[in-house]
Task: structure prediction
Amino acid sequence: MNRDVVIPADFKARYAKILGKENKKFLKFCKMPLRKSIRINTLKADPDKIVERLKERGWKLQKMPWFEFGYFVKTDEEITSSLEFFLGYIYTQEASSMLPVLALSPEKNDFILDMTAAPGSKTTQMAQIMENKGCIVANDNDIYRIKALRYNIETLGVLNTVVTRMDGVYFKNIKERFDRVLIDAPCSAEGNVRKSWNVLSRWSVNLIKHISEIQKRLICAGIECLKKDGVLVYSTCTLAPEENEGVIDYALKKYDNVFVEDFGLSGFKTRPGLLEWGGMKYDDQIRNCKRIWPQDNDTQGFFIARLRKK
Result:
């Protein structure tokens, strides 16, 4: 059922330029409630047993084709009030939010920086894939968000993670130290409209421009602390080109030792990055970025870029 969402005229006009006639479908999906989804935490639970016991309680589960431990869920039970959630056997995570970690492809012995980690969805997903091996530096600059990060790390049985509280820009001082860097950057959160339509109540082009400057500083710090041949994934839950393609284009112009890698997300529909916006022409490599529109997979909106350091 669609919600009574007031969408700003500037927002409509902006995406009409990008999507053309398809803008109506996009705006329709913006008003639709988001599907519930979970990730089964294999650090503490057997997936088959969890699926069986949830189904016995009447939960309807649909496995995500792009991540073997991700499920769409239909249940009258409040997920975060369930025993499985309390014990850390399952974690509520939106489907497209699982994709940046898949793009990063962490390996067991990697030394990884999660630059803006709280509340820990992607940190704990990485730890799960790494089977608690290697090391993750989970950083955030907000003490209140760090409390949630530490709680989730502890609840989900994560053992390979160090929590730090710093401005992400600080990591520019640590040269070529990390095998992989994840920057799930703070953003205007346009892609979260289906989760919380209040996002639009504070939306503005000025906000987008302000946040994009922060994002540029973060990605520069990430490139500086990334080892040679290392991988950096930059992601946002917004659709604004200034915060996505514009940031990647800025990084490519500033650093001649990084390039944008193409990557696949099996079972998930993505679209290439935009090569032009607002009179700006972007580097051709940006076509290798992935745009995730809500109407394509019935998820949140997202943007993902995978960079490699030469």
User: Anything to note?
Assistant: The longest strand covers residues 226-236. The domain at 100-309 is CATH 3.40.50.150 (Rossmann fold). The radius of gyration is 19 Å. The mean pLDDT is 96.
